[in-house]
Each structure stands twice: as C-alpha cells, then as structure tokens.
Design the sequence.
C-alpha cells in the first residue's frame, strides 16, 4: 500500500505513557507496542522528550522494551542529535528519524547518522527561527531539506517532508495551505514523500477527532503518503482506508474490502 | 446598567462584528463616557468570555472572534481617548516565547485576551534571546513580563531568563508570569516566577493581580 503509517501512542507527552516510562513499566509500553503493531503500524514512534536531562536513558529503555515484543521498525522521535546517536546502536532495523529541521545543529548532527544507519528521516518545513506558514515558504523550505539530504548522500526516497499544519481555530486558511503545499511538494520535488500529524489542525475545537479524520482524507487525496496517527482508532483507520480508495490508491478497493472483512472500518 | 451598555456587552459576547461599531458609536452619540463604554461594556464582556472559555462553554475560535469584536469596538472609542491625552492602559506587558522555542499560537491567544482586558501589550515574538529581552525591558520598562514555552526542552530557558533578570537587577522592577503546555504552577514557583496561568483567562486574572502589586 502507498501509505506509511507511523503509530504515535508511545509518546511521553501522553500522561499515562509518561508515568509508565518513569516507573519503567515495561508491560504497559509493550502492550501499546503490540496493539499498534497489530493495528497496522509500519513504524512505532518512540518519544521520551518529557524527561529533560534523562531523555537518552529513558529512550534506550523504551527501545529495548518495545523490541522485546515486536519486530516493527521504530521511529526515533527526538530533536536532539546526541539522543538519536545514543539510541541508534540499540535499534534492530533501520529506523525512521523524527526529525530534522533546517536548523544547522540538527542537520549536521542528525543527517550523518541517517546516512550511516540507512535510516529514513522526517524533515519539518521549519528554519532555525520560523515555521513555514505560506505555500511558498513551505515549498522553499522543502526544497532546502531535499538539497541537504541529497548532499548528505541520502536518497530522496528516504525523505519524508512534513509541511506543518496550524490549528484551524487560530489560522483559518492553514489546512488549505498545507493541502496545497502537499500537492506541490509531491509534484515539484519528485521522489520525496510527504508526512503529517493530524492533531494540530483540530486544536481548540470540539470533536477534534472528526476534524482530524476529515483533514486526513483531504490530505490523502492531495498525495500525502505517510501519516503519524493512532492506528488503534477505528474511525480514523476506516477514514484512512476509505480516503485511499477515493484517492485511487487502492486498486479495485482491495485493501478497503480486506479491512472491512477484518471488521476494522468502523 | 443602561440598555445601550448591555447591548455593547452582549454584542462582544455574541461576536457581532458587524454591529459592534454602530452600537459603540450610538452610545458615544448619546453622550456616554468613553471610560464607561470600555470598562462596563467592552472589558466587562471579555471577562464573561474568558470565564466561559475557562469553563469550557465556548471554544478557542469563539473567544478569538469575541476579542476581535472587542477590538473593533475599542477602535471607535480610541480616537476620543487620544484627543484627551489618555492612553487608558492598565499597565504594560511584554510577551515572548523563550529562546529555542518558536511556538506562538498560545502566546498570541493570551495577548489578544490581555489586550481585551485593557493592557498595553508588546509582543517580542518567538525564540527570544535573554540579551534582547533585557534590552527591551530597559527600553520599555514594563510592569509585567509573560514568558511562554511549548516544549519541555525549552522550559530550562525560562529559569535561565529569570536568573539573568535577577542578576541584572531587573527582577525587582517587574513581575514575571509563565505559561505553556508543559509548564505548571509548581515549576513557576521553583524558577522564581511570580505566577502561572493555565489558560488565557487565567493569564488575564493573574496579570491584574500582579500589576496591582507591581511597584510604581
């Protein structure tokens, strides 16, 4: 299927997950890992960013715990090159690194590690001091990410460009700007992928999951080919499958039908 | 309260952007005091809006559009105040996101609500170095500094900022409030901030309290 699913639940910004990590409760983290892998995750995101000063130690523990119960490759989620470098030797399969920006410290610290380990990398459309807001800004920064990745000897097909999306509640045009940027990045930067998280867009609104699902379907229709989400959310997973069918990315709707037979659409 | 004042207040609460300026103008034409319009109409309305938001009765965009409506009403009154040589500011507040952090959505919501409460707010933007902040504090002389951080990784920068203000002898001259998703009241106390606001409405209450206490 042309859609890479990165499962988001093993993240220390979630209260229960942070508690489990703090208590080194392996069973809790492993249960989440197994559940998400079983729900169709291609990569399991692992984040211990809430543990300032102890992020590396905690993330090492998480990586070991998760790999004990699943073969799924990991998505190493940290802005800190030292943390990524420290965790990489423990990782069994080539991971996805989440993430670089155009901040030179992150580019220079992380891209050599990506190249060395045959990893894939998520690049945010964000410079040192600014997150891209307009379509042109997003496209320009995407181009610079591609250049830097190429310079580091990493194939463009290993780059997942994250165009960023702002809350509709505070930035009314933001979703449409991001959708247009996805379309243009996929057409103008041949070979790269686009990825997005879904929770920002719905900040400050009621029934956030409904907005998240709707945005996902629209993004898939514009060419998004990777997504960070909770694969155990049935309604969201169903929307993704339906969106791929509508976007013509699921020939004869075979995946959609299979998901229906597995009882996973709603 | 006069019916006109009530209409102004209701219009802000109900986000009637098309009606607010006509209502405020009509009140002025009737000879109503600009101060009364601002205090009992516009600001009083935003207090209700802030409370509704804190109580989860309304959502972020509803609060923003109310703030926008309030500002449109204020625009009608302001020229009269300027003519009187009265800025009517409740105090000056500097707002910024600390160095290393470029998130500004929460900060901008807080700024809108502070302005809605009648404060003069200077927005120093995101990723603000301590050096630049010190320079601006010395130039502007604010009553209150509001610092925002969205990342756990930039919370230590809040501590550093307050430490530097203390070293430079600036901490005694102003109050500091902090906020942002990972920040808590206990963290605020630990780093020596004067207060923590969990949301925009709390930030307004806090600012009123702290500026009431501020020297000068």
Sequence:
């Amino acid at each position: 299927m042309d859609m890479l699913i990165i499962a988001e639940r093993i993240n220390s910004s979630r209260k229960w997950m942070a508690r489990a990590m703090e208590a080194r409760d392996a069973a809790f983290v492993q249960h989440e890992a197994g559940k998400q892998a079983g729900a169709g995750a291609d990569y399991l995101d692992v984040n211990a960013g809430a543990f300032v000063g102890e992020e590396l130690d905690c993330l090492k523990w998480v990586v070991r715990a998760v790999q004990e119960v699943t073969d799924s490759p990991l998505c190493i989620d940290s802005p800190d090159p030292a943390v990524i470098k420290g965790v990489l030797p423990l990782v069994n399969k080539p991971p996805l690194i989440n993430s670089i920006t155009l901040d030179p410290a992150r580019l220079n610290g992380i891209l050599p590690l990506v190249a060395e380990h045959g990893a894939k990398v998520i690049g945010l459309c964000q410079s040192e001091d600014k997150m891209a807001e307009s379509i042109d800004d997003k496209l320009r920064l995407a181009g610079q990410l591609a250049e830097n990745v190429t310079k580091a000897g990493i194939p463009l097909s290993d780059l997942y460009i994250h165009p960023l999306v702002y809350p509709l509640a505070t930035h009314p045009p933001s979703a449409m700007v991001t959708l247009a940027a996805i379309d243009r990045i996929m057409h103008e930067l041949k070979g790269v992928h686009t990825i997005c998280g879904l929770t920002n867009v719905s900040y400050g609104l009621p029934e956030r999951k409904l907005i998240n699902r709707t945005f996902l379907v629209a993004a898939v229709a514009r060419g998004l080919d990777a997504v960070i989400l909770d694969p155990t959310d049935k309604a969201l997973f169903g929307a993704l499958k339906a969106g791929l069918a509508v976007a013509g990315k699921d020939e004869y709707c075979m995946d959609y039908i299979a998901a229906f037979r597995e009882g996973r659409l709603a | 309260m006069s019916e006109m004042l009530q209409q102004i207040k209701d219009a802000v609460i109900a986000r009637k952007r098309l009606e607010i300026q006509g209502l405020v103008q009509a009140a002025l034409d009737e000879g109503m005091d600009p101060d009364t319009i601002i205090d009992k109409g516009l600001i009083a309305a935003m207090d209700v809006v802030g409370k509704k938001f804190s109580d989860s009765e309304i959502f972020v965009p509803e609060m923003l559009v109310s703030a926008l409506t309030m500002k449109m009403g204020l625009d009608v009154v302001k020229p009269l105040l300027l003519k009187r040589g009265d800025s009517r500011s409740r105090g000056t507040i500097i707002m910024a996101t600390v160095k290393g952090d470029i998130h500004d959505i929460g900060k901008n919501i807080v700024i809108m609500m502070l302005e809605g409460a009648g404060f003069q707010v200077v927005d120093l933007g995101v990723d603000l170095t301590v050096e630049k902040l010190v320079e601006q504090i010395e130039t502007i002389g604010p009553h209150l500094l509001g610092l925002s951080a969205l990342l756990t990784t930039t919370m230590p920068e809040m501590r550093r900022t307050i430490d530097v203000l203390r070293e430079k002898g600036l901490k005694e001259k102003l109050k500091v409030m902090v906020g942002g998703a990972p920040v808590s009241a206990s963290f605020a106390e630990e780093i020596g901030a004067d207060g923590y606001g969990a949301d925009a409405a709390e930030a307004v209450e806090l600012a009123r309290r702290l500026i009431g206490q501020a020297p000068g």
Notes: The domain at 4-233 of chain A is CATH 3.20.20.20 (TIM Barrel). DSSP finds ten helices and eight strands in chain A. Chain A has a mean pLDDT of 96.
